[in-house]
Amino acid sequence: MGDWPGSDLSDEELDVAYNVRRKSGTEAMNLHLARYKTESEQAVAGLPGHPGVVYDETSGERLDVWGIDDQALRPVFVFFHGGYWFALSREESSFMARTLHEQGIATVVPDYTLAPKATLEEIVRQARAVVAWVHRHGREHGLDPDRIVVGGSSAGGHLTAMTMVGGWQQDYGLSEDVVKAVMPISGLFDIRPVTRIYVNQYVRLDLERAAALSPALLPVGARCPAVFVVPENDGTGFLEQSRLFQPHWEAGDLMVVPGRDHFDVVLDLGDPDSTVGRTLIDLVRSV
Fold first, then answer.
1. 254: phi > 0 → left, psi -120 to 50 → alpha, else beta; which?
2. C-alpha dihedral (195, 183, 67, 168), degrees to nearest 10
3. CATH 3.40.50.1820 is right for the domain spanning 11-285
4. pTM exceeding the 0.85 threshold for the entire prediction
5. Of 39, 146, 185, 207, whose CA is between 20 and 30 Å from 96?
6. DSSP secondary structure string, 38-75?
7. Is the per-residue pLDDT at 5 higher than 80?
């Protein structure tokens, strides 16, 4: 399948580049994950919304809608959680909802069936089904179907990119430009390295399937505004992924966030005074 990011590295070197649990340390990672849960609970307490809505009849998966306004449709930020496609859920992933609500923006946080119960092809299908649901049913839930912004962290950054690329929208009856802007955080855009790291025990990819599921190797389609966020202290593989994909997209900015790592950078989405938080608000308002 030719050269790909890290194809010249040993298995040990690839693990160093992509094993962010190893880089951050288990204790620090667990502290950040606990913050995801606590800050999400605090963010949505008393917030107007529609939790637990089934968005995909095939899988039965659900999403939460937060931060709506009964008086007007709101632009919506759809956030796909990380966890290397095999961990986490929407319960830990709404920590930005209150901040966005205060800025006139609604938040949609979906679950997707985790690997290995679901294949990565199925997980991608579900991510696209989320976008289709927002476009078709957004109005009845306080969402503006013409102002959809998508973001996600790590594996969620990959899913974000799989909604950016072209060639899938027609199957869902959507226009190529249904996604108006994107913010992948620590995204994975050429996932062929996954075939040689520990994550593959869950997603079980070979090089051919990994290539078919790599946004960097798929048709670009309608380029929308994009901000590719990656923390300064991320794994080197994630840094390289964003640095390679951003020029390929030809319509986005690369933001390297100083002092942040793979796990804490995403929490900045809930801080309107942070560079990442301000940038997200400005991105949504621009569409």
1. beta
2. -60
3. yes
4. yes
5. 146
6. HHHHHHHTT--EEEEEE--TTT--EEEEES-BTTB-EE
7. yes
